[in-house]
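Fold these two proteins, one after the other.
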Amino acid sequence: MRHRLRGLMAALFALPLALAIAPSAHAADPTTMTNGFYVDPDSSAKRWVAANPGDGRASAINASIANTPMARWFGSWSGTIGTATGAYVGAADQGDKLPILVAYNVYNRDYCGGHSAGGAASPSAYATWIAQFAGGIANRPAVVILEPDSLGDYGCMTQAQIDEREGMLTGALAQFSRQAPNTWVYLDAGNPGWADPATMARRLHEAGLRQAHGFSLNVSNYFTTTENTAYGNAVNSELNARYGYTKPFVVDTSRNGNGSNGQWCNPSGRRIGTPTQLGGGAEMLLWIKTPGESDGNCGVGAGSSAGQFLPEAAYKMVYGY
């Protein structure tokens, strides 16, 4: 691994100086242990381009989406999870690149929305799964987004279910702290249109945010980077006022180039955003959701299932129509 010093924290100067950022659960900085971000060689966009070289949309999708570093999502479809995460971060490590992984298997996942319902069979099954996820990464550098939507999805849940979920997330963070010392874990915090900053700060804290490196915003959504930065800073202000600490945050910019039109499920007229990079109003701007992958059977993805790659949607997202 090459070691390079980088100005990763510059964007955090946007926070009020009075806010004291809580130290990360890990001392290591994976961005200084690697030389740029990893491009998933087996992403859905890559596979579609390879299988359809004569399609008139392939060139644009290849140039603007398939070769941009983005996250790989892991869940029940991933097989033996420790083997899957180990192989993925191992391949990135071989190339001296930083991989982005999404853990998406919490028990009662998407309990209220339903489009991505599923997850582990029980809280104990999830505890085993996430422990193996972290163990597969081990001491290699990585970025992990922990359970998108899990803290925004409270609308139809009982307090007992909420407590159960927060316990699963706290347990997951403990596993990464113990087994993956060179991984930055971001606990997902939804988006600016879901919960007010005070509510999200409380949910993050109760789910164990102190153990995480930071929190993630806008995963699979469309709010602008400016809107997310303002929201992230507001969440941090609430964290500081209530609990005496703040945390870095990252923003999913994969589909926010035209901002949000108020719809979250395959809206038309959206556009890809700033490619994965350090800084940009947050600690990092990341492509977490693959542009062109469906949000579910809705909107311009009517008839599709969540996660299915839709080349026409991807192509239109390149140009914003």
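Now the second one:
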Amino acid sequence: MCNLAFKRRTLIRSKIRAIIGKYLDDRATPAEEQLLTHWLDVISAEGTPSDVLTSGDKEQLRRKMLQTIRQRTGQPARSYSIWKRMVAAAAILLVVVAASWWIIQQHTSRPVAWLELSTGIGEMKKLVLPDSSTVWLEGNSRLKYPGHFKDKRDIELLYGDAFFDVSPYPKSPFTVHVDSLQVRVLGTFFHVRAYGQLPIEITVNSGKVSVSKHDQLMGLLTANQAMRINWNDYTFLRMEVSPLNISDWMRREIVFDNMPLRSVLHLLENYYRVKFDIESVPDMQITGSMPATLLPQQVFNILEELTDHQVIVEARGGNKVTVRHK
């Protein structure tokens, strides 16, 4: 149940108990007695869960309590006090259960509206979800999420690159759906990359993450571990990686951790409006980082350095970029 519904239910319970307490001490105002009477009228008319009290029981309780409120005289002090407390205790149970049930019904019956957040090439957006979890969505990405959570906290990364800071709710796992995969956590920092041209990559900064395909467990990841998954056959590779740094992420650092050069170039296409011709790219791994705010020519210069001058980059025809041997 979301925090809003919980706070609302707690507030109603607190208010009911306060009024009942004043009533027991003969301090309730006429307006408060009228409010208590109205609550009982509503409960008798609309009903409560069937296993609490029957309609006849509720009506009998309502009449007896109204009689007690209006009379206030005619009984010995001791028996009157005990009777009041018995009736009030029953009223508290009845009203609290009814109010809670009504709130739950209102919340669970509300249809879930699914929303979508997308980013353009080179753009980053921050999203705070209904459970206070935070998502940073990188360039050329799409995320689908509900307007409010019910029993589950499920969202879907349709395409792209996202970093998640998940609020911990032990009884409600947080699940990111990527294609037919489920990335499930309780509370942690983790990163999911799912661009179509690149393998799916899941990296954990803190906490623990389970990765499943159609709910069949593929593996567990803890801090500084990653899983790289092929789209075609879902074969995967587990690896140790350098710690993710959220401050680096916020500074828009593009990090390459033992990444094939072809994948590096495909990744850069989501940060810059360029298309790489990669037919002649050598089979080599890249480790390093660069700011996402650099100009394209600066990126090309860094690529030459990262590849130890094994390749050069030439710009052709505006956005067309060719990578070839030196």
